[in-house]
Structure formats: C-alpha cells, structure tokens
Known about the structure:
By secondary structure, the chain is mainly β. The protein contains 1 helix and 6 strands, in the order βββββαβ. A 3-stranded antiparallel β-sheet has the order 1-5-3, with no helix packed on it.
Amino acid sequence: xxxxxxxxxxxxxxxxxxxxxxxxxxxxxxxxxxxxxxxxxxxxxxxxxxxxxxxxxxxxxxxxxxxxxxxx
Length: 72
C-alpha cells in the first residue's frame, strides 16, 4: 500500500486476455483501470478504497474475470 487506502493490484496472464474485469466484493472503492485488454504478461492497477480495509482483506475479496471466463 503506497498511501492510506491505496493498494497495488498486479494481474498476470500467460496469453492476451480480453476485457479483464476486477471486482473487490463488499469493499467500497474503485480501480484506476477496469475492463481492459491485457496484452502484456503483467499489468498493475491501483485500488482506491473508500473504507478502512487491509491488504489481506482486499486479497480475500478480489475477483478477476475476463471474457474467456464467460465461455468456460
């Protein structure tokens, strides 16, 4: 966490991923980017929490989906 309520989230994929979507279930806040095309092996985005939370709690509540998940 770089400053209060701000968390770095790294997303990794072995191949390009279309419409990568991040969800922090039951944690109020926003991601710096969401619904993006992942063309590099790793991408880091920031999560700005609007409530008190810990890195561990966010990690437990974080879900990452892509277009691929809709068809598997």
